[in-house]
Amino acid sequence: MPIWVDADACPAVIRDILFRAAVRKQMALTLVANQSISTPPSPFIKAVRVQAGFDVADHYIVQHLCAGDLVVTQDIPLAALVIDQGGVALNPRGELYTADNIRQRLSMRNFMEELRSSGVMTGGPSAFNQRDRQEFANQLDRYLQRAR
């Protein structure tokens, strides 16, 4: 099953984990971004550059996604679309989005966006750390084992 990456905001360390996994498992890995993304030479890895614009990369991924494909994204609305189409969504911190938790995540995202638009300072996510990296690698390994 292919792996799709919403690559504009994906940490480099996560891309490196994905590059190694794609080569090791000989799985297609496609990074989608509105900027150039360098990739190692491999027949299993490619980068697609889309036009700049709001959600252009997201729309590309959704249009090309098949049921069972993995999408790595921090974008909760994209994760909801992926799940609705039968895909698997994983964020770079290792949180697996599911049909059971995506609606709550989407509601919380929308609530926080409302607060920010009304001028409330909400802060951002905590800094990406080694624990996040390890949790992502563990979830990716679980997905790859199930996919085979």
Structure, described:
Helix 1 runs parallel beside helix 5 and helix 3 runs antiparallel to helix 4 (102-117). This protein has a 6-stranded mixed sheet, sandwiched between helices. 26% of the residues are buried. The protein has 148 residues and is α/β, with parallel strands linked by helices. The longest helix has 18 residues, at 130-147. The protein has helices spanning 12-25, 56-64, 76-84, 102-117, 130-147, and strands at 3-6, 29-33, 45-49, 70-72, 88-90, 96-97. Helix 3 links the parallel strand 4 and strand 5.
Q: What characteristics describe this protein?
A:
6-stranded mixed β-sheet, single chain, 6 strands, alpha/beta, 148 residues
Task: Determine Rg (CA atoms, Å).
Answer: 15 Å
Average of pLDDT: 89
Number of contiguous helices: 5
Cα separation of the termini: 9 Å
Topology as a string of helices (H) and strands (E) = EHEEHEHEEHH
Structural class: alpha/beta
Quaternary form: single chain
Shape: globular
Give the strand content: 5-15%
Query: What is the topology, as strand order, of the major beta sheet?
Result: 3-2-1-4-5-6
Largest sheet: 6 strands, mixed
Compute the number of strand runs: 6
**Percent range for helical residues?**
40-55%
Q: Which stretches are low in confidence, meaning pLDDT under 50 for 5 or more residues running?
A: none
